[in-house]
Amino acid sequence: MHIHVLGICGTFMGSLAVLAKELGHRVTGSDANVYPPMSTQLQAQGIELMQGYAPEHLQPAPDLVVIGNALSRGNPAVEYVLNQGLPYVSGPQWLADHVLQGRWVLAVAGTHGKTTTSSMLAWVLEHAGMSPGFLIGGVPQNFGISARLGDTPFFVVEADEYDSAFFDKRSKFVHYRPRTAVLNNLEFDHADIFPDLAAIERQFHHLLRTVPGEGLVIYPADEQALQRVVAMGCWTPVQTTGEGGQWQARLISEDGSQFAVLFDGVEQGEVRWSLTGQHSVANALVTLAAARHVGVLPELGIAALSQFHSVKRRMEKVAEVAGVTIYDDFAHHPTAIATTLDGLRKQVGDAQIIAVIEPRSNSMKLGAHRDGLPASAQQADRVYWYAPANLGWDLAATVACAGNPTEVCDSLETIIAGVKAHAAPGTQVVVMSNGGFGGLHGKLAKALAQ
């Protein structure tokens, strides 16, 4: 079968394309923005990529068109599909029908940490010899690929609350029907489709309604929004993590790179890894709880986590030039920015941290999180914010009250000049964006090398 994927370079759709290819289909795809790491992964898989959404990409007609949620009415490819009467489906629906049917699905949902936690969980199962399938919105470094079918009933999926398609406004995760459901955390996000936090909580409750009574729901005990979700009705056993939960961590090092794991008050072992931050410790606890549900003993899960290498673009060290370390990070919400910088600060002590941040997500463009931005970067010694011409609100006015040296730039060249002027041996530069950021990481490294 020839399947054409519209929006193929999105992290979810690109992973789905890999699974379709593994199932034996001929897979092609179109996207407006073709950039790594997804573009290189797809090309390595022998999947043909086309720039833009020209109707000609759908000639001769494929057997099925899978339409990504970034596309809407008015898109030339979408209009062609509808006018020609071509068969089409949303990505989550295709995944549910052709990959997840009949499998033990472990779904990882939440505002933050979905990609890292689902990568951890897939790795823990792999380390235990369970050869899981997975679909992850990033490239886990332990696997080098964002999706695979796997050889056993177990399948780990990053379960996103964003909508499924222009014709299906339910959250993606409602399609997945997990037996093990991890709810990492819950904050307001996706202001382009949700009016308020209560609307997102309702979608999370729709997910809970699909988890069988013999399954398991896992969430942090102190997350108030998730407490409200569970209070709406839960027909499944629950395990909690963190303060007041059944799964707890006792920090051995302040930066979270070493901690003991306790289950029902009994120590299970110690995790020693390269990750930092309280958020990473929280991700580890829900991972161990989910893995135990499918039969992985905590001590085996802990051993696996000590060999976990995180995900591309999640505090990924991409260069070290003239003593300056450059990280690429996906953080694009004030909470994620703050927790990432806090983890790095605890790791590097007094070393200079320079944060370079692009407020690029749909919620950011609508200004939904702008009030939280100045405080989110306070752990950095210096902050460069990128304000593109189409941002739609005054970023400079928003961050003017920041307590640390802060500059708003309208070009990458200005950012590079600023970082170059202030970076010294030992400086840690964190570049944060949920897009390609114009290849800034490579340009910075090149400028520093000169």
Automatic annotation (TrEMBL):
Domain Mur ligase C-terminal: 313-435
Cofactor: Mg(2+)
GO molecular function (one): UDP-N-acetylmuramate-L-alanyl-gamma-D-glutamyl-meso-2,6-diaminoheptanedioate ligase activity
Gene3D superfamilies from the UniProt entry: Mur ligase, C-terminal domain (3.90.190.20), Mur-like, catalytic domain (3.40.1190.10), NAD(P)-binding Rossmann-like Domain (3.40.50.720)
Pathway involvement of the protein, from the record: Cell wall biogenesis; peptidoglycan recycling
Segments forming domain Mur ligase N-terminal catalytic: 2-99
EC assignment: 6.3.2.45
One Pfam short name: Mur_ligase
One example of a Gene Ontology biological process annotation: regulation of cell shape
UniProt enzyme class: ligase
Keyword vocabulary terms for this entry: ATP-binding, Cell cycle, Cell division, Cell shape, Cell wall biogenesis/degradation, Ligase, Magnesium, Nucleotide-binding, Peptidoglycan synthesis
Record: residues binding ATP: 110-116
Domain of life: Bacteria
Segments forming domain Mur ligase central: 108-291
Catalytic reaction(s) noted: UDP-N-acetyl-alpha-D-muramate + L-alanyl-gamma-D-glutamyl-meso-2,6-diaminopimelate + ATP = UDP-N-acetyl-alpha-D-muramoyl-L-alanyl-gamma-D-glutamyl-meso-2,6-diaminopimelate + ADP + phosphate + H(+)
Key word Ligase present: yes
InterPro entries: Mpl, Mur-like_cat_sf, Mur_ligase_C, Mur_ligase_C_dom_sf, Mur_ligase_cen, Mur_ligase_N, MurCDEF_pg_biosynth
Cited function: Reutilizes the intact tripeptide L-alanyl-gamma-D-glutamyl-meso-diaminopimelate by linking it to UDP-N-acetylmuramate.
Record protein name field: UDP-N-acetylmuramate--L-alanyl-gamma-D-glutamyl-meso-2,6-diaminoheptandioate ligase
